[in-house]
Design brief:
about 130 residues; two-stranded antiparallel sheet; 2 domains
Length: about 130
């Protein structure tokens, strides 16, 4: 049936592209409107919403290090115990070698330094739990 009318193929292709564009717009809008903190450090551990909605305890973290001027890399002892959720984890295309979780800072250099200082302030707890 589509062979007889080639314009139907173009119409179906245009409809598919339009639906994908709408889905991308809705996803981006929801992400921008999310007002929750994306990274939380507290006594229970680290919560990185791009990775998971669960806290990762300090004892499960093997190493934390900066990469460049805007990435904080986290290596876990057992990454299988703290799998990421859904499509966000699969979209993390390029992670530095050895990093299980990557936090990308979109702010200025001061905010990046504050995040590193916060991780370093928890470092004694991290060492105690190992």
């Amino acid at each position: 049936m589509l062979r007889d009318r080639p314009w139907d193929r173009w119409l179906a292709l245009e409809a598919a592209i339009t639906l994908l564009a709408i889905a991308a717009f809705v996803g981006a809008s929801l992400r921008l409107l999310d007002r929750r903190e994306s990274v939380v450090l507290e006594f229970r551990g680290v919560l990185v919403r791009d990775h998971s909605d669960e806290f990762i305890p300090w004892g499960a973290i093997a190493r934390v290090w900066p990469k460049g001027k805007n990435l904080v890399c986290i290596s876990l002892h057992d990454p299988g115990r703290y799998p990421g959720h859904g499509w966000r984890r699969r979209l993390a295309l390029r992670k530095p070698k050895g990093a299980d979780i990557v936090i990308a800072m979109r702010g200025n250099e001061e905010q990046f330094e504050e995040l590193l200082a916060a991780f370093n302030s928890w470092r004694p707890a991290l060492i105690r739990d190992l």
